[in-house]
Amino acid sequence: MSAPNKNYDPVAVSSLSPGEVSRMLDEALAAVAQAGSLEELRAARIAHAGDRSPLALARAEIGALPPEARAEAGRRVSAAQTQLKDALSRRQAELEADRDQRVLVTEAVDVTLPGDRTPPGALHPVTLLADRLSDVFVAMGYEVAEGPEVEAEWYNFDALNIPPDHPAREMQDTLFVAPSSGPGSAGGPGLPSQGSSGLVLRTHTSPVQIRSMLTRPLPLYVVSPGRCYRNEALDATHLPVFYQIEGLAVDEGLTMADLRGAIQAFVDAMFGAGLRTRLRPDYFPFTEPSGDVSMECHVCRGASTDPGADPCRVCRSQGWIEIAGCGMVNPRVLVACGIDPDRYSGFAFGLGIERALMVGHDLTDIRETVDGDVRFSRAFGMEI
Ligand code: PHE
């Protein structure tokens, strides 16, 4: 074992001199005081109190001192390290308190703020009415039938006794589907002519009558709600895309009395019992005879027609409101569907759902039904 270093060389162990130790301590305390975050404090702790910190390195030099100098130097370094440790833990406590305070503020939940609610969706009033009208007939034993919106001309016109040159085809102002760009069809009897796709956007729900008669067993009671298309400009009273609902009954011995009964039941269900209905002659190629259906005005009940009475805007003081077309199924239509017109007869009626909605709720602009403004829908209740 070597003899203790009697020749104390102050240069070799200058790091243990009182001035140097207090300088290292000041530097360490300054770093602690400057640490603005727990991260920075961690770095200061490693730099000034870690194994490789100046104070730790100085402590390692104690052994190089002469024995009589060691105790004093040891106390000096220990005192500095204790002071630094206290400073570190005080600063740690301060920074943690700061952080907790910040978290309380930034992560605070104000339970009194209004909730961020997504209102539930609901059915459109037109859909609601279509469902309600269908229900009226389903309750009377009808089935709901549906068909395609892109329809073969044959179902939309020909089978309904509307031949190619019939003015009704123009009357309907049809949207025809463009032929595909492949080689045109050769045409021929019953086939679309060259340059035509043979397809239209259905102009009414009546082709569903044909589809039902061709596919369902007799007797037949169906109701068909659905979307229809016509080549109309959108204005206050016309929609190019609209909804109809149509009823069809085919059975033995059906007469116009049955038709009247069905229509009356329908008006009763929609507007409440007690409103009279009337039929006036009209013309549809697929029904014979045909009629238009009016119901007594549900607002003035005809009172506006009295001399000197207040005018009624719902029926324009007519006392009656036209709501549907109807008639006895034309025997030619029955024959087109392979039904014996000597044994069976039928009746049919059809109406526009948006128009029925307008009549029922005194609306003056049909465009409100397609604007998509939720305020309009809300007024009808938000049924899902
Ligand atoms: N399809 C007719 C229309 O669109 C309505 C109708 C249906 C008329 C059934 C009579 C019978 O105008």
Mind explaining what this structure looks like?
The model is unreliable at 184-190 (pLDDT under 50). The strands form 2 sheets. This protein has a 7-stranded mixed β-sheet, with helices on both faces. Strands 2-3 form a two-stranded antiparallel sheet. 38% of the residues lie in helices and 17% in strands. It has 12 helices and 9 strands. Strand 6 and strand 7 (287-296) form a beta hairpin. With 384 residues, it is an alpha+beta fold.
Unreliably modeled segments: 184-190
Order of helices and strands: HHHHHEEHHEHEEHEEEHEHH
Q: Specify Rg, calculated over alpha carbons.
A: 46 Å
How would you classify the helix and strand content by structural class? alpha+beta
* Overall residue-averaged pLDDT value: 88
Distance between the termini: 97 Å
Please report the first level of CATH classification, the CATH class of the largest domain.
Answer: Alpha Beta
Report helical residue fraction.
Answer: 25-40%
Give a quick summary of the entry.
By secondary structure, the protein is of the alpha+beta class.
Which features would summarize this protein structure in a list?
single chain, 384 residues, alpha+beta, BirA Bifunctional Protein, domain 2, 12 helices, 38% helix, binds phenylalanine
Provide the fold topology:
Layout: H1 18-34, H2 38-49, H3 54-60, H4 67-106, H5 125-139, E1 143-144, E2 150-152, H6 153-156, H7 167-171, E3 199-201, H8 206-215, E4 220-229, E5 241-252, H9 256-271, E6 277-284, E7 287-296, E8 320-329, H10 331-336, E9 344-352, H11 353-361, H12 374-378
Parallel strand pairs: 1-4
Antiparallel strand pairs: 2-3, 4-5, 5-9, 6-7, 7-8, 8-9
Helix pairs in contact: 1-2, 1-4, 2-4, 5-9
The structure holds phenylalanine.
Phenylalanine binds at residues 204, 206, 246, 284, 287, 325-327, 348-350.
